[in-house]
Structure formats: C-alpha cells, structure tokens
Request: fold
Amino acid sequence: MKKFINDPKQFVPEMLEGIALANPDTLRYVPEYHLIHRADAPNHDKVTIIQGSGSGHEPAHVMTVGRGMLDGACPGDVFAAPPIDYIIGSTKLLASNKGVLLLVNNYTGDRMAFEMAEEASSADGIAVRTLFIDDDVSVQDSTYTVGRRGVAGNFFVMKAVGAAAETGADLDELVRIGEKVNSVTRTMGVALTACTPPARGAPLFELGDDEIEIGVGIHGEPGRRRALWMPANEIVDELLGAIVPDLPFVSGDRVAVMVNGLGGTPISELYILYGIIHKRLTALGMTIGRNYVGEYCTSLDMAGASITLVRLDDEIEMLLAAPAEIAMRVF
Amino acid sequence: MKKFINDPKQFVPEMLEGIALANPDTLRYVPEYHLIHRADAPNHDKVTIIQGSGSGHEPAHVMTVGRGMLDGACPGDVFAAPPIDYIIGSTKLLASNKGVLLLVNNYTGDRMAFEMAEEASSADGIAVRTLFIDDDVSVQDSTYTVGRRGVAGNFFVMKAVGAAAETGADLDELVRIGEKVNSVTRTMGVALTACTPPARGAPLFELGDDEIEIGVGIHGEPGRRRALWMPANEIVDELLGAIVPDLPFVSGDRVAVMVNGLGGTPISELYILYGIIHKRLTALGMTIGRNYVGEYCTSLDMAGASITLVRLDDEIEMLLAAPAEIAMRVF
Reply:
C-alpha cells in the first residue's frame, strides 16, 4: 500500500486537521467527535444540518461543511458509522433554536447510530429530525443495508436543504424538501478497480485486470454483476438503462446530471462520460438543467464513477442554484 | 488498461466535446484545433490568453478556460505539444485588438511549437507575446526540457494574468505580471504509481510496489531519486527541503500553498499532506495567505502529488483573490 499517510490509525484525524488548517476563517475542528463544523455554528436563525457517515468518501461530508451546505460533519473511521456519542456530542454542540436536521445515508450501522442519537438528543430537549438518503438503484438490499444504499445523490439533498436552511426554513420544511429531492434522485456506479482502506493495507475486494463491477457500492459492496471491461459508451448505456426507467425519467423531463468520480479516476475520463450521457439523455427528450462533473462522494482510491440523475422542478433548481461555500473549492 | 474511454484515438476529442456540452453558455469547442474557448472571445477590451500543452493534465488547461482565467486552450494529444497549426489557428480566431498572450510550460516541443506560432502570428499582424513557465525545482534539465519543467505552478501564472487581463491590463503588463509570478513560484512532485496513457495501454514507467519517484515530472519523467515508500511526514520534509531553499522562502514570507493531486490520489490524502505542510511552514515562520488543495495539473491516473509555494505580495495576492469561473467547479 502506498498512500500519503503516516499512521493508518491517524488517517481520519490527520485529514480533519488538514481541512481545519486550510479553512481557519470558516471551519472549526473538534477532535473529540471527529467534528468539522462551521465557525459560525450554531446560528439560531437557521436549522443546524449535520451529516455523519463513514470516512473515505471525501469530499463527502467533511469537505462539504460551509455556508449553504452542512453546519457540521462527524464521520466515523473509514467506512464505519460514527459512534453514537460523536453524533450526540455534535448535535448538542451545534443545536440551534430552530432545531437540528441529521442527514444519513441508508446503511444499517448509520441508521442505528443516528436513530439512537436522535432519541437521546430529543430526550435532551433538542428538536431533531433525521432524513435518510437511498438513491442507489443498483440493488434492493445489500451488504450493509436493508433497502437501497445512499450514495452520491446525497449531494443534492444536502445542497437543497442547505440552501433552504439559509433562508430560515423550519425543520418540517427541510424534511419535506429533503424527502422530495431524495425521491427524484437516482444513482448507479461502476468500479474499474477496488479501493484500499488504510488500516487494511490491501484492496478490499478482488477485481481482475479486465473486470469491472457494475452497480458497485461506495464501500466496495457487490453491485448487479461483474463484467468484462467495455467501452465507455456501453458502460453509460448499462448505467442509464438502470437509472432512467427506475424513477422513471421520461421525455420532457428537466434533469440535473452528476458524473461522480470514485477517487482514482481522472476528471478527463469523467468528462468523456458526461459527453456520452448528455447525448443519450438529449436523444431521450430530456433537458439538462444543471451538471456536476468531478468528485462528490468517493470510495477512497477506487477507479470508477457513478451517474446521478435528479428530476428538476422550479423549487429544486432554485435551491441547487443558490450560492454555497465549502472546503472543496478551486480558487 | 481499464478506463472510461471508447477509442484511445478519440480520448482528447471526446473529452473536449464533454467539456463543451457541460458548459454550453460559457464555452465553445472548435474540433479543428482541439480548441476550447470562451463563448465571448475575442473580447477586444482585454488581451486574449491562450495556453496549449499536451492533454492528460486536466483540469489543465482545457477546464481552466473561463472568466478571469484563459480565453482558450488548444491542447495536443496526450503528453504531446499542440501542432503548430492549432496554435496559429487558435491565435487568429481569438486575437483581440489588445493582443494575445501565449502561456507555455517549458518543454522543448511546446517551446518550438509556440515560438513558431508566435512568429507566424506576428507576421500576420497580431500582437503576440509568449510566456514560459518553469516552476519545477526537481531537475535542471530533463527528458523533454532544457532548463526547468513547467508543472502545477502554472496555475498561479494563469490566475494572475487572467485576473489582470480582465481589468484591461495591456500585453506588456501581463508579461511583467506573469514573469513575476513565475519567478516566485516553486513546485516539486512525487509519484506513488506510474500513469497509463490511453494510446499506450500500459504504465508509462515501472515503479515497484514499495517504490516512489521523488521529483517526478508530469509526463512520468524521472525526478531526483527513486526511494522506498515513506510516511507522509517524511515525503513532505523531502519536498519542502527542495522547494524552500530554492527561492529561498524565508521566515516572514507570506505564501500561497498548493497541494496538487496527480490524478489517482484521493483528496483525503491531499488534506493530510496540507496539514503537515501548514505546520512545517508555520514553524519556519511563514504565513499561509492562500491555500489550494485538489487537482490542478494531473498526470492522467498517476497516484501522487506535488507541492507548490508562491511568495505573495499585495499585487499577487489581489490577483489570486479576484473572481474567476471555469469548467472545474463544484456547484
């Protein structure tokens, strides 16, 4: 294993410290809870939004804390749900008078931790609601889930509720918006290689030199099928062939498209995918209102990508277009 | 080789088409010259800025075309200088009344192509100047260079002259600014893996499972030495140990720091590097005025990173802070 790390056990803390040092004006780091939070949180004019999840999916979620996005992120170790006391501690520390919205990708471990933390926080008198994201069309139940997995489409839920929270929307309204965005968001991914968790030091699963995993999960979970490598056109056709009929997305729909890199795939290849997707969707009679090409939810160093479609309406598009500021930036 | 491509020969055109389709309002694609240019170019109120270089370094430079950055980018094939007629054609098409600034990373092939294109364009009556970037401290002469190589520090030259051009600065002023930024910018990189050019289909060089290449070039050129993998702390010490004394950067300096991923390294690891660098530079008495963590100039799918330092003054910092808009974006 060759990575830019010191001690694998310090992978997450050293990363979090780096994020905080790079954003001294806007972010704070609370090592006790693996918490990265906005320097101005809690802000009692808005609902506090917190996401947990395991580490290893960066920029999700520790690098998506900021104005118009999350107020805080308290990840667990790599691919592990945050401990319950991280969530409770973060919730207590950041709770605003308008309440706390917890965003959770649908994995059994995360659900359990967040549901128990919600209960404990409610008992402490904090108004808390929890929103589950399950955008992955690949498989119904999976290695770590009952129901569908939450993957890169989580970004759109975060962005929409983050924008609405800035306008002062209350907790019920954020839950309505988040559930609505989740309900029109569909994702599927493909792995060209496995990923290597730092503490394991070896690839998480075996994938032959000529093989790809279609429908892979962001923790290396199996997808729909193992296939021989195929050209980008065919990969797009297979992924869209699963995503489009699922909602279904239909002619006349206005959509947002995300091509999300899984960590080891260069952005050049993501734009090749985008070009193909754009033409396929246009041929199906859809209009692409917004596009996102880059890394949003990764699986460590996995080479691969996922495609997400969101059916837009005026409300969702306005929320996605609202300004936001996070650690993941260019300039 | 497993990549998201169709035909390796179409790698660059399909990527460029994807970029153009993703940015219909702001960018245009001219297949004849591999040219991506601003939809509003030429703008006769500003000097036109064009960069060439080989492909395979994305986002550099085809994804850094936009307001406050490049007016156009006309790359060659992967790791190949653009053909002279691409540069001449692009220059003619985008030339503004205020002239054209050509940005060129210092490689022999690129120098030749751009110098000949400058001569031809000048003969056509276009005011053209060419600026060479050579920020890589690793080696003096190299596989493809006389003198030093131009690598990720190129971003700062682009950003500074791009910002100045928006204010109406003339060609001489842009050359002065660009040369100044280049003169205070220093970079060195390290490869954890080789990269695989699509047309070659195999890694460009051999690197053992436990080896790293310190001072690697962005085309896989050898650096200062081949070493066994070492912890991130030691890698940072070795890179900064070459970069800091080179200018030299000294106590009291205010600097910009870039941690640039080479294509296959996840952003989590880049932030681990950033945290270490931040502490080292602070301990040396420097202040970090701006930081950049992400992918700016890659080497296809190479796992690795480079560190760039820029000594700031008020003028440079103001130019770096100016607004800009490019294809590489988050929201």
Q: What stands out?
A: Helices of chain A lie at 11-22, 84-94, 108-123, 154-166, 171-183, 232-243, 267-283, 314-321. Chain A has two domains: 11-183, 185-321.
